[in-house]
TrEMBL record:
This is Olfactory receptor 51G2-like. One of its GO terms (cellular component) is plasma membrane. Its main location: membrane. Gene3D superfamilies: Rhodopsin 7-helix transmembrane proteins. It is found in: Membrane. The lineage of its organism: Eukaryota, Metazoa, Chordata, Craniata, Vertebrata. It is a multi-pass membrane protein. Keywords: G-protein coupled receptor, Membrane, Olfaction, Receptor, Sensory transduction, Transducer, Transmembrane, Transmembrane helix.
Amino acid sequence: MAPPTNMSWTFTLSGIPELGGNQQWFAPPLCALYVTAFLGNCTILFLIRTERGLHQPMFLLLAMLPVTDVGVSLTTLPTMLGIFCFNHHEIYSELCLTQMYFLHTFAAMESGVLVAMAVDRLVAICAPLRYASVLTNSAVGRMGLVIVARGVCVVLPVPLLTRRFPFCKTRVLSHSYCLHQDVIRLACADTTVNSVYGLVAVLLTKGVDSMFILISYGLILRAVINMRANDARLKAFSTCVAHMCAVLLFYIPLIGLSVLHRVGTHASPLLAIVMADVYLLLPPVVNPVIYSVNTKQIRHKMTRLFRRRRVGVPANGIAVVKV
């Protein structure tokens, strides 16, 4: 007989099984990744918040990306540090479902932000004369509200549907955090509804988003090729490089992980673990580097920020270098 569904289950998170009892060896690089991600994304947010010259639609959209990256990092931080720093692998079902909800919600929001950024570049390059009238700060605010509402509403049924399942099999998850496709495979009940809704949710968010991104950058590429001035072509191309890097960094591991969970039954478990960790840990670390290097305004503001921290200006107006 299946156990009652209202019981509080305890799941076991795997970490990296290949490390055996030496999980703590992964703690230093993991902590370094989290610290780098928080510092980099918070620096981008601080610059956009404090520099009035960056209060423009392009940079307001850019500010949404660090918010989602920090959200993903904060969601996975407790269980990742618990496993690799304190060798704590247990998580209650309620906490697991909560982590699963916020993790998938922030991922859906990040996908929506990447679409909004692609649309921003499409209007700026293909219809520059209409950019100021189409993409205003208020329009960006409405886009942000739609992105948040879509992520919250589309993902909300996932934990509610999962909560009703009994788990009478081994309750050992494959990753260091709770993913929907990883949890439902342990249920001793018919998971067809969850699988179908999960697929629909992915298609409504990341599927539709990737299609719009491909169309947008296809139109951008055609417009860039047709530009007559080499300087304008180079500027437009360099502006889009950062966005394309962020898109590829988000979608390639995501697609690979989805394929592995659905058809990669004979693949090495380590491959799925590495793919999931890359999908969740690498974008928050690399995105601030991409935008600070490829976006001239961000690069200049960041240089001024660090110079300001090293140089003090006393009352007599003579700059003194701090050592």
